[in-house]
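Priority: medium. Attachment 1 of 2:
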């Protein structure tokens, strides 16, 4: 679902042909969206930190699940050359792809959500003011610039991860029920462990 939404939003934001995205950007965006929750244990970062879970220790209590999801994706790819879609990339493109995937998956950490949205809002207001003062009618995010394309990809993965509320009712209800079940299951664990 997140992968489908990411594909749709990239087309909506950048254009049907997506010709402005490099092959690294397009592949990294889609892989990050598809794998952003791979191996998810059904609890949140706060729970993992509170119980001193192995993952919390490994990732130093910072974006624990997101770091785990990114690492798991790359570990799975290394298990077989069949799954290592970057095997034929140049060394430079392998580094760029990995860095972008990790960046996008880390952007799904909800503890950073409001800072992310706030920073984008400030940036957007500045761009709007610049455009108005210069009386120019260009895109506020210039897709020919790598930093602007990164901003679009980051926004698209956030919207894809959280956007089920904008989907048809049946789809929204399906995902809402899954999330609520996950929250309740975590609450039951916390109660049994005396955390709450």
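Attachment 2 of 2:
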């Amino acid at each position: 679902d997140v992968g489908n939404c990411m594909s749709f939003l990239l087309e909506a934001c950048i254009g049907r042909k997506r010709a402005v995205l490099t092959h690294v950007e397009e592949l990294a965006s889609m892989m990050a969206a598809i794998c952003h929750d791979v191996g998810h244990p059904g609890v949140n970062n706060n729970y993992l930190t509170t119980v001193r879970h192995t993952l919390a220790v490994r990732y130093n209590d910072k974006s624990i699940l997101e770091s785990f999801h990114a690492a798991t994706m790359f570990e799975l790819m290394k298990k077989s050359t069949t799954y290592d879609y970057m095997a034929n990339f140049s060394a430079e493109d392998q580094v760029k792809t990995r860095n972008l995937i990790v960046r996008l998956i880390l952007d799904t950490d909800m503890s950073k959500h409001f800072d992310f949205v706030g920073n984008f809002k400030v940036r957007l207001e500045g761009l709007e003011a610049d455009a108005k003062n210069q009386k120019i009618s260009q895109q506020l995010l210039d897709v020919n610039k790598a930093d602007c394309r990164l901003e679009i990809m980051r926004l698209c993965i956030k919207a894809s991860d959280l956007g089920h509320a904008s989907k048809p009712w049946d789809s929204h209800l399906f995902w809402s029920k899954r999330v609520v079940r996950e929250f309740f299951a975590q609450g039951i664990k916390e109660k049994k462990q005396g955390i709450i």
